[in-house]
Amino acid sequence: MTQGIIENLIIELMKLPGIGRKTAQRLAFFILSMPGEDAKGISRAINEVKEKARFCSECFNITDMDVCSICSDNSRDRRKLCVVEEPSNIVVIERTGSFKGLYHVLLGALSPIDGMTPEKLKIKELEGRLRKDEIKEVILATNPNTRGEMTAQYVRERLKPFHVKVTRIAYGLPMGGDIEFADEVTLGKALDGRREMN
Ligand SMILES: [Zn+2]
pTM of the entire structure? Predict the structure, then answer.
């Protein structure tokens, strides 16, 4: 019977990315050896994130409130808006310390072949923010790959009527890459070296 519950945990852990059978086994037995409170802390955190996580009503970052902690931070520069594909990109950019403005998450990138059309992205909401907020610069920090590039070009076109400065992060970032995997220094430089898009 013991075999059953450990095996069950191993199978659950293998659902995580990058976790193969061997690692899952090691983790499962490690969890088994942990103090009860620590192990419960993990399961509680997982439950909480699934129960409470929602999208910020302003920027579509992940939050447990109506408006996320970045949007509600009055010390941030409200004239700059950094557009990213996924909420996880915000975490990476925040770590660079290079950006003190606000964000807007598109919740994806254009890929017509996979049904990711412009209507599926939070572009209308971005336009809405440009209409009501005092935004002077929009920084397009979509991934430096084909989809991210296509998305940046498309968003740039959509923002033309707003007469706002639109910039694209520079390429110290390897082409074909993903913001997720850029180191902080490279990403910081890519932000600092952003160029205006025509
Ligand atoms: Zn927000």
Answer: 0.80
Q: How far is the CA of 30 from the centre of ligand 1 (A)?
A: 36
Host H or E run for residue 96: helix 87-96
Q: What's the gap in Å between 104 CA and the centre of ligand 1?
A: 8
Residue 25 Cα to ligand 1 midpoint, Å, equals 38
Interval 38-81: pLDDT, tens: 999 999 999 999 999 999 999 999 999 999 999 999 999 999 99
How many residues are recorded in the chain?
A: 198
How is residue 143 annotated by DSSP? -
Q: What is the pLDDT of residue 24?
A: 97
What distance in angstroms lies between residue 185's CA and the mean position of ligand 1's atoms?
24
Taking CA 86 as the corner, what is the angle to CA 172 and CA 146, rounded to the nearest 5 degrees? Answer: 50
